[in-house]
From TrEMBL:
Lineage of producing organism: Bacteria, Bacillati, Actinomycetota, Actinomycetes, Mycobacteriales
Alphabetized GO MF terms: phosphatase activity
Record's protein name: Putative phosphomutase (TIGR03848 family)
Annotated segments matching region Disordered: 210-238
PANTHER family, sorted: BROAD-SPECIFICITY PHOSPHATASE YOR283W-RELATED, CONSERVED PROTEIN
Length: 238
C-alpha cells in the first residue's frame, strides 16, 4: 500500500504570516491555486484510487483539481485536520517566537501542548492511526495494494513521516514539508519505507531562501526570499 502525502498549497494565512490552525475560511492564494493545478497535472497519470483530505478549506481546494481529473470524491477525514493550536490560532508568527513554549516545540515536540489546544504527540497518534486504518480499509476492499492520496498540513505530514522514518517526534522539526509538496510512504508487512519527501517537482524557489535557524509550529519560519513567490515568507507553513 502506498500513500502520497500532499501538503496544501500556499494559503492566505501564509501570506499574512499568521498561524492559521483551524481558523475557518482560510483560502488558497493565487499561487496556491496554481500549485493545486500543477499537482493535479503531475499526479493524474498515476492509478490513484482514493483521496482523503483534511476537511479544512485550503486542503479541499488543493485536492479539487486532482479529484476532478480522476473522477474521485475526496473523503474529508477529521483525523487529518490541522493541529488545534488553541490560543495560538490566528496569532502572528512574530509574536509566537517570543513565547516560552516556542523552544519546547523546537526541541521537545513530544512534550509540547498548545494552550487551549492539543499536544503534538496527540497529533502524531491520530494522524498515523488514520493513515494505517485507511490503508487497511482500502486493502480489504480491493484485495490488493492501492495507491492513494492524503492531503493534510505541515505538522500532520511531518509527524507521519517521522513515524515512517523511525524518528522520535522530538526530531520531526528536521523534516521540511513545503506547500504543495508530495511525500510518499509505502507500507508493507515489514514496515514503512519513505520513497520521497518534500518533492515540489520543478519548483525549487524555496532553496533561494536563507536557511532559518528554527521552525515554527507547522514547520514554518519567515524568510524574505520566499515572500515574492507566494510562500508567505515561510519555508514551510501550517
Amino acid at each position: 500500500m502506498t500513500v502520497i502525502l500532499l501538503r496544501h498549497g500556499v494559503s492566505t494565512s501564509n501570506t499574512a504570516r499568521t498561524l492559521a490552525g483551524r481558523s475557518p475560511g482560510v483560502e488558497l492564494t493565487e499561487r496556491g491555486t496554481e500549485q493545486a493545478v500543477a499537482v493535479a497535472e503531475r499526479l493524474a497519470m498515476l492509478p490513484i484510487e482514493h483521496i482523503a483530505s483534511s476537511p479544512l478549506l485550503r486542503c479541499q481546494r488543493t485536492v479539487a483539481p486532482l479529484a476532478e481529473k480522476l473522477g474521485l470524491e475526496p473523503d474529508h477525514d477529521e483525523r487529518l485536520i490541522e493541529v488545534d493550536y488553541g490560543d495560538w490560532t490566528g496569532r502572528p508568527i512574530a509574536e509566537l517566537v517570543t513565547e516560552p513554549l516556542w523552544r519546547v516545540v523546537q526541541g521537545h515536540a513530544s512534550g509540547a501542548v498548545f494552550p487551549g489546544g492539543e499536544g503534538l504527540a496527540q497529533v502524531q497518534q491520530r494522524a498515523v492511526a488514520a493513515i494505517r486504518e485507511i490503508e487497511r480499509t482500502l486493502a480489504e476492499k480491493a484485495g490488493r495494494d492501492v495507491l492513494w492520496v492524503a492531503c493534510a498540513h505541515g505538522d500532520v505530514i511531518k509527524s507521519i513521516l517521522a513515524d515512517a522514518l523511525g524518528l522520535h517526534l522530538d526530531s520531526f522539526q528536521r523534516i521540511a514539508v513545503e506547500p504543495a509538496s508530495i511525500s510518499v510512504v509505502r507500507y508493507s508487512a515489514h514496515g514503512p519505507s519513505v520513497w520521497k519527501f518534500n518533492d515540489t517537482g520543478a519548483d525549487l524557489s524555496a532553496l533561494a531562501a536563507t536557511a532559518p535557524a528554527t521552525s515554527t509550529p507547522g514547520g514554518e519560519v519567515p524568510t524574505a526570499a520566499n515572500a515574492d513567490n507566494g510562500n508567505a515568507g515561510h519555508r514551510d507553513s501550517p
